[in-house]
Design a protein that fits this description.
The protein is mainly α. Helices cover 79% and strands 0% of the residues. The chain has 5 helices and no strands. The longest helix has 30 residues. The two termini are 17 Å apart.
Length: 129
Amino acid sequence: MDFNASPIGIYIRIVAIISLLLGLNDAARLLGVNLGAVSPIATMGMTGFVYLAIFALARLFAAVGLWIKASWGAVLLVGATSVELVLYLLGSADVEMTAIGFAVRLVLLASILLIFALSVRNRRARAAD
């Protein structure tokens, strides 16, 4: 993938910032921000806590990968976001998100898939020249 093209590079950086913000939001939930004296593990359950930790770490690492324009960042983001959305849509009680969180994750997934499509299109255009 050619993530170094200028317009795609800017778009990737924006997606990386969104991924970073989502990862930091998940990390804040893991730490129990806004829960007071209640333990986040008691609130979410152990399985929900572990899922959230995995998704938070995956998003943070994906943000770094996208920022440095490495293709593994996009793959990691697609994988983590897809698994989280599938678990949520299947009704897993361990994966909780608001309607806004669901929408942001859908936009993030669509954005990264658009990046893949643009990179394939650019590669084909260069091969035709």
